[in-house]
Amino acid sequence: MADETTPAAIERIERAIARIETAVSDRERANAALAERHEALRERIENAIRDLDAVIAGESVVDESSVNDDAAHENTVD
After folding, report:
1. How far apart are CA 12 and CA 66, in angstroms?
2. Is the confidence at residue 27, as pLDDT, over 70?
3. pTM for the complete prediction?
């Protein structure tokens, strides 16, 4: 009886190992896909922040020049 159950147990163990290996492989693929999406999103966010910084820097230059223009205009009006 032990001789009959041993091969069946080994077969079940081998099938379980195959399922585990498949699950690990699937998980690795999913993790790789997630890492790629994360990197793409990170690059998009970095670009958006860089663009916003440029807009803010441009507004600062415009704001400073308009303040200087307003001050110059006030000096000529008086």
Report:
1. 79
2. yes
3. 0.53
